[in-house]
């Protein structure tokens, strides 16, 4: 068997892997490669073993920290179109710049690139 125990897989996943493995072997793929490909396919389609306990992996501390900082950033929401004093024009998305340019009625905005929008908005201020 390829690496690891297959105890965490459901009966359905195990049957599926067997069928996939058999079809690869019928096509002339060596047994070991066919088995590895079959389990890779099952993992790709279902995300691995589905029985209780999962992979045994938990989120790392850095992943938990990253998730917390993302949610903190989302908490600083403002109303659409409202200027954000904590952000420079260069750090805003092109869509945000387009919205500001539209509200200031800057002509030619639809064909402008991001930097051109920034320059036009600075000039309009």
From TrEMBL:
Looking at the record, the residues that make up the Rho termination factor-like N-terminal domain are 89-124
In the record, biological process GO terms are: DNA-templated transcription termination
Q: InterPro entries, alphabetically? A: Rho-like_N, Rho_N_sf
**Native source species:** Halopseudomonas xinjiangensis
| Compositionally biased spans, kind Basic and acidic residues | 1-36, 79-99, 113-125
One of its Pfam families is: Rho_N
Q: Where is the composition biased (Gly residues)?
A: 46-56
- Record protein name field: Rho termination factor, N-terminal domain
Q: Where is this region: Disordered?
A: 1-125
């Amino acid at each position: 068997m390829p690496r690891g125990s297959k105890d965490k897989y459901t009966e359905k996943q195990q049957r599926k892997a067997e069928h996939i493995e058999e079809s690869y072997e019928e096509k002339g793929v060596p047994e070991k490669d066919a088995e590895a490909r079959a389990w890779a396919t099952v993992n790709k389609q279902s995300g691995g073993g589905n029985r209780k306990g999962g992979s045994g992996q938990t989120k790392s501390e850095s992943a938990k920290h990253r998730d917390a900082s993302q949610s903190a950033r989302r908490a600083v929401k403002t109303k659409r179109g409202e200027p954000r004093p904590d952000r420079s024009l260069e750090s805003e998305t092109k869509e945000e710049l387009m919205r500001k340019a539209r509200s200031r009625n800057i002509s030619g905005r639809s064909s402008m690139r991001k930097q051109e929008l920034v320059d036009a908005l600075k000039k309009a201020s």
